[in-house]
Amino acid sequence: MSRYKDKFSRKKDITPLKEAFEDLLQAYKLKDRFNERKVVSAWGELMGRSIANRTSQLFVREKKLYVKLTSGPIKKELMMNKSKVLQIIEDKFGKETIEDIIFL
After folding, report:
1. Domains of the chain: which residue ranges?
2. pLDDT (tens digit, 9 = 90+) per residue, 23-64?
3. At 31, phi and psi to the nearest 5?
4. Cβ neighbours of residue 75 under 8 Å, at least 6 residues apart?
5. Are 72 and 104 in contact (CB under 8 A)?
6. Distance spanning both ends of the chain, measured CA to CA
7. Residue 58: which residues within 8 A CB-CB, separation 6 or more?
8. Please, which contacts does 72-78 make with residues 24 or more away whose CB atoms are closer than 8 Å?
9. Is 5 helix (H, G, I), strand (E, B) or coil?
């Protein structure tokens, strides 16, 4: 047990749950994946109900957000405003979460 002492030592002071959860995500290298899931689940909140209702599929692969839309005009509008959509995501979740958006 002494060989793990330095690497996995426990903190002696009290840590808020949010901070402990962040540390856990960092330790297991799950923070990026967790943030990607948060982006997908918050899509309706970020883009509004009209766009969310016309989104048929949404997933993240290799830091790219893939958005499949059922409306051609909304797809075209979002493609023209891609940088604004990326900025909204960056403001909420950080710059390194999503690097590009692909509209399908």
Report:
1. 16-103
2. 776 776 777 788 888 899 999 999 999 999 999 999 999 999
3. -60, -45
4. 69, 103
5. no
6. 52
7. 40, 43, 65, 66, 67, 68
8. 74/50, 75/103, 78/51, 78/103
9. coil
